[in-house]
Amino acid sequence: MSSEDSFQIKLLIDEHNCCRQVNSGSIVTYRWIGKMLTNDILVKPRISYRNMVALVKKNFGLHVSVGQCRNAKSFALDEISGSLVGHYEKLWDYGAELLRSNSGSTVSIEVNPMPDSTTYFKRMYVCLKGVKDGWSEGCRRVIGVDGCFLKGICRGELLAAVGRNSNNQMYPLAWAVVLVKNKETWKWFLDLLLEDIGMGDGRGLTIISDQHKGLVEAVKERAPACEHRQCARHVYANFKKKYTGVEFRKLFRRAAKSTTESAFRSYMREIIAMSTHAYDHLMERDPKTWCKAFFEIDRCCDAAENGIS
Which part of the chain is the MULE transposase domain (predicted)? Predict the structure, then answer.
């Protein structure tokens, strides 16, 4: 209005047959996309560019191109890698703090020196003093060892040693991060573990594991006097690849849980009646390592599986 500070609507058409087109993708930079999707890329590093386009549209209502997402992913990975380098640099301080706050603990950090004087992380082992003492004073002389893959930007494998307390429940004992799971890394892990728990060559100790060849050989070399059991679940997982069926499964589990040699032989006779090859397959896996009837009687633990690890 010319005479006052206000306005007046003189004509209003409130029926429309068009809609407003919003496309802000052209003013969005790849750096902004990378910062917004950093957490998504960290969780799923192999996310595709098209999935990133769909994610930006879903979360922010913006239309971006595949090229923008390609540059955004590269930017986000560089940011993540840069922060991880800083994290790895703090490992020495982390290890020193563990030793200060848990006097008597074992922390071993090894690196690979490069020709240009830089060092890269190789492996790390941790076993806390309180945990060692607790295992020695109140746990069964049974340890399960296993490893799993680490997923994400930094690959590698996590090795773990899990004991069993007086209630037969899990008792995490020691852990390590290594680049790859092989005979050499298992020997290194077992050396540190056996020294921490004071079991020497493994006499009086039971170790339960899967059928990883490197681990089996490492146990033979580092703990030759221990009782080495194989996880019955892993034995059956390999068995059922060739011999499927409910009857095979039932007979195998009954044989594995047999508490006397006569009962074990009885179930094995039923298996040989069904298939001589199935019988041979199981006997080649050394039943003394996965059947309860052959376990050492002074271990006070009849565990035939290692899923707890």
Answer: 142-238
